[in-house]
Amino acid sequence: MKNLFKKLLVPALMVFAIVCASPMANAADYPFSYEVRDGGVVIVAGKADYVGEVVIPEKIDGVPVTIISDGAFYGAEDVTAVKLPASLKTIGNSAFEGCVTIEEIVIPDSVTSVGEGAFASCASLKSVSIGKGIDAISKGMFEGCSSLNGVILPDNIKTIDEYAFSCCDSLETIAVYPHVTKVGNYAFYDCDSLAKIALPETITVIGEGTFAECEKLASVSLHNTVTEIEALAFDGCDKMTVYYTGSMAAWAHIAIEEEGNDPLTTATIAVGHKHDNKEDVLVTPTCTEKGIGDFSCECGYAYKGEIPALGHSKVNIPEIPATCTTAGSTSGEECSRCHVILTQPQTIPAPGHAEVVDAAVEPTCTEEGKTRGSHCDACGEVFVKQEIIEKKPHNDTHEITKATTSKNGKKISTCKDCGDVRTTILYNVSQFKLADTSYAYTGKVITPTVTVKDSDGNTLKEDVDYTVTYPEGRKAIGKYTVKVTLKGDYSGSKKVSFTITPAKTAKITSKTTDKSVALTWDAVKGATGYRVYVYKTVAGKTRVKLASVTGKTTYTALKDYNGKALKAGETYKFAIQAYKKYKDGTVIYAKNGVAYTVTIPPTTPTSLKVTSTAKGKVNLSWTNVAGEDGYTVFYSTSKNGTYKKLNGTKADVAKLTASLTSGKTYYFKVRAYCAGTDGNVRSGYSPVKSVKVK
Question: Model's pTM, two decimal places?
Answer without folding.
Answer: 0.44
